[in-house]
Amino acid sequence: MTKKALITGVTGQDGAYLSKFLLEKGYEVYGLLARRSSPTTWRLEYLDVLDKITLIDGDLTDIASITRALNISDADEVYNLGAQSFVATSWAQPLLTADATGLGALHILEALRQVRPQARFYQASTSEMFGKIQEPMQSETTPFYPRSPYGVSKLFAHWMTINYRESFGIFGCSGILFNHESPLRGIEFVTRKVTDAVARIKLGVQDKLSLGNIDAKRDWGFSGDYVKAMWLMLQQDEPDDFVVATGRTTTVRDMCKIAFEYVGLDYNDYVVIDPKFYRPAEVEILLGNPAKAHAKLGWEAKTTLEELIHMMLDADLIRVKNEIRS
Ligand code: NDP
Ligand code: GDP
Q1: Tens digits of per-residue pLDDT, 174-185?
Q2: Is 189 in the pocket of ligand 2 (CB under 6 A)?
Q3: Residues of the domain holding 260
Q4: What is the pLDDT of residue 213?
Q5: Is 303 a catalytic residue?
């Protein structure tokens, strides 16, 4: 029997990689498509999966549309990747973030409880829930201390997933994923902002790169590796929560160094600090311990930060060249 999966946030970075991954596993893939004024399917086109999946109109803030999507898709597995996912924006739009990122997850859980309780559920939790870290290396047992409306909203969704598992027996898993990037990462996130700028500087169409706190440290992995961990969680006998990370942390500064060096430039000559990119409350450092995912799921990160940044830069160099040509 062909398995069916419903993905919210299908037009996002992870939605595109997960669609490709599940199609390769033989799944029938459905995606919840939020209405926007312009097309949002460019990532699905980039990975050549747009015409292989079924899109269902709907929004995380509208439980009726989620129930409808569950009924249409008959999903065996539901991956909740939809969110207002950019930390900086969550201070500008805290209520929207709480609605989509926090309550959105509860809408799915409640819809599952009512119409499809047998389906397995994946919640896209985040290392941002650790925020002001309470242990040097964060694992599934580390206390949370979110530092943004985004982190707080995700923590609500995380605990709701656990609560619906304990209250109603929903097979709900929460993947506490550390930062993961790719050539499909949104341009506002720091890795992609850097690789796009380095490509532009190298090709002579940009002079400087303005950044905020370049001493912040992140545990960065590749999205293509991380979507496999999501799927593995839903294939286990029992639902559980897992940290997914590389176990290595790097400053934004050193990540810049890797990117500029790849095209033969020195980041010191181009990076300028603009306090407008500072955050009202910062997450200074994140470092994940993926031991449980390794032991129980047999999962580990395959792509190094250097390989990731080079992959992103190769893609951005092509994009910028095409832009200049047209
Ligand atoms: P993206 O920002 O690339 O994608 C977010 C997706 O959510 C988009 O498809 C977006 O649709 C959709 N969306 C936003 N609001 C709504 C809504 N109200 N109803 C329906 N869909 C909506 O995120 P990523 O792919 O990077 O991340 C996937 C998930 O994992 C997110 O929940 C994110 O918070 C979480 N996460 C990500 C990490 C990372 O480092 N990438 C780390 C840990 C967790 P549209 O295209 O129309 O805007
Ligand atoms: P986040 O970890 O989900 O917030 O992912 P981001 O890629 O947005 O940010 C990672 C880190 O880079 C944070 O500590 C930011 O403060 C820091 N940073 C420094 N300069 C910038 C910048 O110009 N843009 C972004 N997005 N982050 C920056």
Answers
A1: 999 999 999 999
A2: yes
A3: 186-218+249-285+303-325
A4: 98
A5: no
Of the candidates 46, 21, 109, the residue with the CA atom closest to the CA atom of residue 11: 46
Element housing 120 (H / E): strand 120-126
Ligand 2 centre to CA of 140 (Å) is 23
Ligand 1 contacts CB of residue 11 (under 6 A): yes
* pLDDT tens digits along 202-214: 999 999 999 999 9
- And the tokens for 112? 């599952």
Q: Are residues 155 and 212 in the same domain?
A: no
Pair (52, 171) in one structural domain: yes
Of 120, 119, 92, 121, give the one whose Cα is nearest residue 104: 121
Q: Indicate whether residue 90 lines ligand 1 (CB < 6 A).
A: no
pLDDT tens per residue across span 243-252? 999 999 999 9
pTM of the model: 0.98
Cβ(255)–Cβ(209) under 8 Å? Answer: no
Confidence of residue 37 (pLDDT cuts 50, 70, 90): very high
User: What is the per-residue pLDDT for 206?
Assistant: 98
Query: Which secondary structure element, helix H or strand E, spans residue 114, and what is its range?
Result: helix 104-115
Rounded distance between C-alpha atoms, residue 154 and residue 160, angstroms: 10
* Per-residue pLDDT tens digits for 61-89: 999 999 999 999 999 999 999 999 999 99
Q: Which atom of ligand 2 is nearest to the CA of 192?
A: 7
Distance CA 322, CA 76 (A): 41
**Known active-site residue 128:** yes
**132 and 32, same domain (yes or no):** yes
Atom 46 of ligand 1: nearest residue by CA position:
11
Asked whether 263 lines ligand 2 (CB < 6 A), one says no
